[in-house]
């Protein structure tokens, strides 16, 4: 693959700005024989099809709700596609607008923004081309983050270096700059003092059964907790404590599982933010923590001289409110 990886932001105020950047990007890909994807809603798809004419037949249109499902999983799937297309001597080209994820709960939005930054590390060597249109009508914080997570910015058919771009690792550290909210006083607590994980899994299962967590998500949680606790036993320092609680309030109810220990992580450990890569490609991260991010809705990590905390969140299905006392 001779092309270099590119990741650019397309800031736009209206339809003309959007088409001025998106159309050359898509047409160049179709002319080059790239695999071209446009992740957009129905209105944008109609607009692009009309403007592209016959070229639209070379573009795969993808519904945003099926693409932006989970930050780590979407990153992994897209990276796999890029590697597969590159292996076949072609280039993956993606136009992806963050309209859907920008309206999701704040913690999820933060992880999508972090994923935008990590793309710049994970996709090195793939030759892929990714353009992200950011409308000025998006929340101001989302637009500001977009200007910090893309190395290039686009105006029409012209691409230039983005002066506001931040190093991905520095941006990720900024995402973790706020301390975690305090755990509730009534959180369930289990101190772990032995490597036998049978009782750990039994404890997590028993607590999770009190919540509406689906069985498939419980299986994911058991694998994720096992990995995090094993990591603490191997590399952390006692006491190692597991705590669990639920956060039922608001539109994003969750089961929270937290593991703390008195150890600290080595600089450059990566926190499992970058997918492991095959030998000879861009550097990836540890599979274990990357797998944890694939398994859980949100993974929050804080580490320092006072110890380390890994907090896992799995979204709970909303329970319908009782009607007429039923």
Which labels suit this protein?
disordered C terminus, Rossmann fold, alpha/beta, 7-stranded mixed β-sheet, Heat Shock Protein 90, 326 residues, 10 helices, 22% strand, 2 domains, 5-stranded antiparallel β-sheet
What does this structure look like?
The structure is a single chain. By secondary structure, this protein is α/β, with parallel strands linked by helices. It folds into two domains: 6-175, Rossmann fold (3-Layer(aba) Sandwich); 188-315, Histidine kinase-like ATPase, C-terminal domain (Heat Shock Protein 90), CATH 3.30.565. It is 38% helix and 22% strand. The protein is built from ten helices and twelve strands. The chain has helices at residues 15-32, 42-52, 64-67, 71-87, 106-122, 140-148, 168-175, 198-208, 215-235, 287-295, and strands at 6-12, 35-39, 59-62, 92-96, 129-135, 152-155, 158-161, 188-192, 240-247, 254-261, 298-304, 307-315. Strands 3-2-4-5-1-6-7 form a seven-stranded mixed β-sheet, sandwiched between helices. Strands 8-9-10-12-11 form a five-stranded antiparallel β-sheet. Strand 6 (152-155) and strand 7 form a beta hairpin. Helix 4 (71-87) runs parallel beside helix 5, helix 5 (106-122) packs parallel to helix 6 (140-148) and helix 5 packs antiparallel against helix 7. The longest helix is centred in the C-terminal third of the chain and has 21 residues, at 215-235. It starts with 5 loop residues before the first strand and ends in an 11-residue tail after the last strand. The relative contact order is 0.12. Residues 280-286 and 322-326 have low confidence and may be disordered.
């Amino acid at each position: 693959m001779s092309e270099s990886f590119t990741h650019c932001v397309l800031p736009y105020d209206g339809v003309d700005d959007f088409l001025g950047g998106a159309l050359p990007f898509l047409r160049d890909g179709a002319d080059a024989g790239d695999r071209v994807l446009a992740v957009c809603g129905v209105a944008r798809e109609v607009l692009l099809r009309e403007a592209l004419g016959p070229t639209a037949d070379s573009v795969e249109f993808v519904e945003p709700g099926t693409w932006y499902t989970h930050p780590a999983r979407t990153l992994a799937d897209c990276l796999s596609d890029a590697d597969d297309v590159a292996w076949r001597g072609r280039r993956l080209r993606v136009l992806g607008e963050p309209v859907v994820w920008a309206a999701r709960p704040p913690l999820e939005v933060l992880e999508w923004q972090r994923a935008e930054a990590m793309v710049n590390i994970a996709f090195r060597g793939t030759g892929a081309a990714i353009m992200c249109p950011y409308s000025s009508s998006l929340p101001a914080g989302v637009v500001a983050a977009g200007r910090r997570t893309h190395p290039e910015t686009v105006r029409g058919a012209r691409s230039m270096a983005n002066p506001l771009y931040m190093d991905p690792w520095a941006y990720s550290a900024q995402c973790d700059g706020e301390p975690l909210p305090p755990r509730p006083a009534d959180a369930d607590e289990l101190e772990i003092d032995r490597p036998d994980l049978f009782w750990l899994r039994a404890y997590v299962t028993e607590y999770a059964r009190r919540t509406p967590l689906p069985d498939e998500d419980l299986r994911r949680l058991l694998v994720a907790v096992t990995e995090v606790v094993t990591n603490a036993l191997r590399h952390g320092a006692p006491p190692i404590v597991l705590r669990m609680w639920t956060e039922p309030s608001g539109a994003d109810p969750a089961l929270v599982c937290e593991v703390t220990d008195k150890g600290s992580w080595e600089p450059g450990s990566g926190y499992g933010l970058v997918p492991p890569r095959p030998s000879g490609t861009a550097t990836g991260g540890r599979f274990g923590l990357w797998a944890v991010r694939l398994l859980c809705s949100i993974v929050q990590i804080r580490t320092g001289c006072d110890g380390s905390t890994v907090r896992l969140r799995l979204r709970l299905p909303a329970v319908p409110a009782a009607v007429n006392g039923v």
